[in-house]
Amino acid sequence: MNVELLFLVLDYSGVALFAYSGGMLAARKQLDPFGAAILGAVTGMGGGTLRDVLLGQLPVYWVDAPEYLWLALIGALVGYYTSPWAQSLATRRAALAWADAVGMAVFCVLGAKAGLAAGSHWSIAMLTGIMSAAFGGLLRDIIVNDVPLVLRADIYGLAAMAGAGAYVLAIAMNVGTGTAAVGAALLAFIIRGCAIQFNWTLPPLGKVG
Amino acid sequence: MNVELLFLVLDYSGVALFAYSGGMLAARKQLDPFGAAILGAVTGMGGGTLRDVLLGQLPVYWVDAPEYLWLALIGALVGYYTSPWAQSLATRRAALAWADAVGMAVFCVLGAKAGLAAGSHWSIAMLTGIMSAAFGGLLRDIIVNDVPLVLRADIYGLAAMAGAGAYVLAIAMNVGTGTAAVGAALLAFIIRGCAIQFNWTLPPLGKVG
Amino acid sequence: MNVELLFLVLDYSGVALFAYSGGMLAARKQLDPFGAAILGAVTGMGGGTLRDVLLGQLPVYWVDAPEYLWLALIGALVGYYTSPWAQSLATRRAALAWADAVGMAVFCVLGAKAGLAAGSHWSIAMLTGIMSAAFGGLLRDIIVNDVPLVLRADIYGLAAMAGAGAYVLAIAMNVGTGTAAVGAALLAFIIRGCAIQFNWTLPPLGKVG
Fold this sequence. Notes:
3 copies of one chain form a homotrimer. Chain A contains 7 helices and no strands. Chain A is mainly α. The longest helix of chain A has 29 residues, at 89-117. Chains in contact: A-B, A-C, B-C. The B-C interface holds B 26-35, 37-39, 41, 49, 53, 58-60, 62-64, 66, 69-70, 80-81, 83-84, 89, 92, 142-145 and C 53-56, 58, 115, 118, 120-121, 123-124, 127-128, 130, 134, 138, 142, 145-148, 150-153, 155-158, 161, 201-205, 207-209.
C-alpha cells in the first residue's frame, strides 16, 4: 500500500471517529443537531489544528482541504443520530470510548510525525503527538462541561505517549514510516483498549483530601 | 456609504456588543471589574483572533490596532456597570442575548468574508464565518463554567450558518460586498432574534437517556 | 548579571512554578500522574504559547527548546508528589497560590516585553503581558472545571496589569530592560502577595441577583 495513501486513510479515520465521539456526546447531552455538528467538528479537527498552529504551518490543514470538514460533519451526525439505537447507557459509553480510542491512536502518531517533519527534538515530537491526540477530546469535554477523559484516571495520556514514543523510536531506528506508523498506532490502541476493557488505571494519589 | 467604512462599523459594533455581553455575564457571576474586562475582551476579540490564527494572518488583527482593545474594554465595563440597573433577571438575560445576537450576526459575515479573501472553498468560508461568530461567546461561557449558549437548543449555529451561507452565495452571484454583508447579517440577526423572541428551538434527541 | 541570562532565569522560574501549581491542582483533583504532567505542561507553557501565536512568532518558543517541556514536567511532578506532604488543605492552597503568583509576576513582564519587541502599541504590550500571565492558569482551571482564579475576586488581573504597565512605562522612560523587568515583576508579585496574605479584594457588584 502506498505510504501517502496509508497516512491519508489514517488521518480521515481519526477525524471521522473523533467527530463520531463528539456527535455521540452531543446526543447524550441533549444538544440540537447544530450543536452536534459543532462539537463533532471541534473534536475531529481540534488536535490537528492545534498541531499546525504550534508548528507554524498556517493556514491550518483543513483550510485548503474541505473534505476534512465534510468528513467531520458526517461523522458527527452519524454519531448523533445513531446514538438512540444503542440499547443501554453502557453500550453508548463504550461506543464513544472505542471511537475516541481509534482517533487517539491515529493522531498521536500523525502528530509525532508532524513534529519530526518540522525538525523538532524527539521529546517535542512526542509532545506534538500527545497534544494532537488529546486536544480534540479535551475541547469536546470542556465544552460540555465534563472533566476531560484524558485527565480522568484511565490510562489515556500514557497510551498516547507510548504511541508517539514508539513512532519516534522506530523512525530513529530507520524503520519505514508506514510500518512505524501502523505499529505505533496499534500499540497506542491496544494499551488504551486494554484500559477500557479491563478497567486498567494508574494509581492516583490517595492521600490528598 | 463607503464599503470599507461600512465593514469597519460592522466590526466595531460586533466587538463592542460581544464585549458588552461579556461584561453583563461578569456582573451576573459576581466577578470583579478586572474579571469583567478580561471576560469582555475575550468575548469581543476571541472570534476574530481565532479566524486570523487559523487562516495564518498573523500577528492577529488587534496587535496593530489597539482601538479594538479599547472598544472591547469600554463595552465590557458598560455592560458590567449598567447591569444592576436592569429591573429583573429576565431583562438582563434579554439584554445579554440581544447584544450577543448582533455580535454573532456581524461576525458570521466578517468571518466568511475573511475565508473567501484567503481563497478558501465556500464550505471553509462558511466554517470560518461560523467559528468567528461562535468562538467569542463559546470562550465567554466556558470561562464562567456555563454550557455554551451556542450549544444549548436555541438556534444559534443555524443562524450563523444562514448568515455565512447567504454571504457566500451572494458573493458567488456577484452581489456587491456591502449589500451582501448587510443582507446576510440581517438574515442571521432576524433568525436569531425570532429564536430569542418566540423561543424557537430545534428538536433535540428526546430518546437518549 | 547578564541581562539575557536574567530573562532566561525568569522564564524558567515562571514555567516551573506555574507547572508546579498545575501539578498540585492535579493532586487535589485526584488525577493520575499523566493527568498531572499534562495539566502542568499546559499551565507552565500555555501563556507563552498564546503570546507567540498571537504575535505570529511561530513555531512557538518551546518547539526548538525542549528544556521548557522538561522543566514543566519536573515542576508538575514535584507539585503532584509533594502535595500529600502538606499538613492541611490550607497549606496546599497557599503553596499553589504563591507558586502561581511567581509565575504570574514573571510572565506579565515577559509578555509585555514580547509585545514591545513586536513593535506594538503600549496598550497591546500590556495586553500580551496580561494574557501571558493569565492564560496558563486560566487553562489549568478550566480543564479541571473550576471558575478560573483570575476571574474570582482577589486582585489577579490588577496585579498582572500593574506589572505589565510598570514595565512598559519604565521602558518608555529609558530604564534598562533588566532593571525594569525585575522591578515590574516585583511590583506585580507584591500586589498579588498582599492580596493573598491579607485577603485584599476588589468590590464586586453587590446589587446583581
